[in-house]
Amino acid sequence: MAVGLDLLVQFFPNFASIVLAATGLAIIFGIMGIINLAHGEFIMVGAFSTSLAYNGGIPFLPIDALPGLGRLIGAMLFAALVTALFGLLVERTIISGAIPNWIAERTVGHPVITPLYDRLLDSMVATWGLSLIMVQTFRNVFGNSLSGVPIPFGKLSYGNSSIGLYQVLLAGVAALVLVGLYLLFVRTDYGMRARATIQNESMAQSLGVNTERTYMATFALGSGLAGLTGALYAPLLSIEPGLGAAFLVDAFVAVVVGGSSVVVGTLLSGGLLGIVDTLFSNVYGTFAGRIALLIVAIVLIRFIPEGLSSLVERLRERRLEVD
Amino acid sequence: MATESDDTATRGPLGRLTAALHGPNTMGNSRRFWYLFGVAVLLFVFFPLYMLPSSVTNMSQYLSLALLALSLAVVWGYTGVLSFGQVAFFGVAGYTYGIVAINVTGPLGTMAGLVVAVGIAALFAAVLGYFMFYGGVSDVYVTILTLVVVLVLKTFLDQTAGDEWTIGEAALGGFNGMPGIPDLALGIGEPFLVFDDFTLFYAALLAVLLTYLGLRVLLNSDYGRVMVAVREDEDRTEMLGYDVKRVKLTVFTFGGALAGLSGVLYVTYFNYISPSELSLTAASLPVIWVAVGGRKTLLGPIVATIFIERLGLFLSVNVGDWAFVINGLLLLVIVLLLPEGLVPGFRDLVSWLGDRRSEGETDDTAEPTGEVVE
């Protein structure tokens, strides 16, 4: 009984970390066909911005003067915004090459960069270069670590063990993020344009969708979510430039297992992988949890190459046929 | 060139060899190229005469890494499977060699270590490749999975500090790594040739040279043409009746073995291996070398490996921590501006200059590379 309860409670933080690590990556991959290998570094930007803002390191922005929880929430929102803006800059300079091309057209007379959209392998290599630059630049500029952010709320006791309330609440935040994304994609104009762009880019263009702007917004949104993840985990981690790597396995495995549909895929893979991780980490240790994640991913891809979300699609199609 | 090699093909074994080395899939089919190649090889052979001993031993390190780059060039550049996992095979072979060579003393142990290590690396690649390619995992997911495998392997090796991770005499040693790995030696009982310092340099040079020439033959053979076909259009190759999965698995396994050989040479240079050989940064290096040099060439990755590693050493002495930033920038700029890499870019420049100088004379260094222009 106690073990069951223990596993249930432990499931929430694992679910949260997988879902939060994966969403930003999944959105950019699903909509733009870009694998952002600098995803971990975007998370790192979020964590650094949170720490700087919380500890009063941002000039002209007295977030550290806010009272109580407002200080933390303010710092986190600020971090998500900073990362989104940073993502926008990366999109304009590297992914779409718009800024270098703008300069090149005025100096050498022709564009020099072909946009990386849907060039999966090239986008991986380019963002990998970006990730190297970011980790080492942050290390050189900020040193090996920044001062941390305290963990809010207290401990949650159950049975004869306890867990940080904050870790459990993160699962709620993860669920909220998924619900928010669902509403964004289903209810808003942006969501409709994004879905149209995924289905048929040239058709969307001829119907008046500015796909370039959609890509821009998407990359900023994905980066913002990565930043939010970094912000949310800033209290739990030591703020150092390599922290993004810790999220990579979770994020990539979740995207691989989840498949093309962002919200459904991430939810399902977060749930499944969360269960696997919790079981194996608790019984055999963290390393066994990692290995189990990898094996589950390889086996699942072997049998469901399109990811878990394709199962849901198939189910829905079958129901439509019955109707 | 094509007509000339058809003529020489009938002229005895030497002619057949030249014919086998040439083809549209590798750069450098002209006589001028082979003259330059000969000069470069001679420069390397006499390298110890005009360089400091430390430069020579450093060069043997770069040469063994060039094999790692070649393994990725075959897998990624010629077959279209971007693998971040080459360092995993490299590391597994390094550790395996260490375990065998520490436990079995004498040159027999080191020779067995070499064979077992390369075999284990190939087996590892084969098992991983089987699940990926026969599981119908698409290109991108292959890349991600290989990256995840490296990360997980590093996590595993990091936590092997305890006594339960001592295999015979060899302790895996967790973060601290495995010291005291013996040099590779030939002989039975008493070693008659130990590969250290200068001998290791020549061994590495010979390995790179033979691998380069061997790969040229492979890539210009019918099998090489199938590999390039898989890279260019998998579905079409399948429709033409080739077993794409088997080709990919075979190439991936071969790439694993080659990366393993590189790993063995590398650990005998340092006599030491640690999990940092499997870090994210380490995993990125082969991709950088191959992308910068030109992934659809064999020469490019070799040149880029030596150049970038030497540059890295120079930068770490002169600009310290900014070395990696410059490496990253190099990769980014090349991928964005010169997606084919530096060496093909250089070739195009040379042939462009040649065309400008003498309009009539055609330059055969600029032969088509067999790419499909989309």
TrEMBL record, chain A:
Q: How does it sit in the membrane?
A: Multi-pass membrane protein
UniProt keywords, alphabetically: Amino-acid transport, Cell membrane, Membrane, Transmembrane, Transmembrane helix, Transport
A Gene Ontology molecular-function term?
A: transmembrane transporter activity
Provide the protein's localization. Answer: Cell membrane
**One biological process term in Gene Ontology:** amino acid transport
Q: What is its main location?
A: membrane
Could you list the residue ranges that cross the membrane? 15-35, 42-63, 69-90, 125-143, 163-185, 215-239, 251-275, 287-305
List the GO cellular component terms. Answer: plasma membrane
Task: Please give the superkingdom of this protein's source.
Answer: Archaea
> Pfam families, alphabetically?
BPD_transp_2
Q: Its family?
A: Belongs to the binding-protein-dependent transport system permease family. LivHM subfamily.
What this protein is called in its record is Amino acid/amide ABC transporter membrane protein 1, HAAT family
Whose protein is this, by species? Halorientalis persicus
Q: What is the lineage of its organism?
A: Archaea, Methanobacteriati, Methanobacteriota, Stenosarchaea group, Halobacteria
From TrEMBL, chain B:
Descriptive protein name: Amino acid/amide ABC transporter membrane protein 2, HAAT family
Q: Which Pfam families match?
A: BPD_transp_2
Main localization of the protein? membrane
Compartments where found: Cell membrane
Answer yes or no on keyword Cell membrane: yes
Name one molecular function that GO assigns to this entry.
branched-chain amino acid transmembrane transporter activity
Q: Which GO terms describe its cellular component?
A: plasma membrane
Keywords of the record: Cell membrane, Membrane, Transmembrane, Transmembrane helix
Bilayer topology? Multi-pass membrane protein
Q: Which InterPro entries match?
A: ABC_transp_permease, LivM-like
Q: CDD domains, per this entry?
A: TM_PBP1_LivM_like
Parts of the chain that traverse the membrane? 33-50, 62-80, 87-105, 111-133, 140-157, 200-219, 249-267, 287-307, 319-338
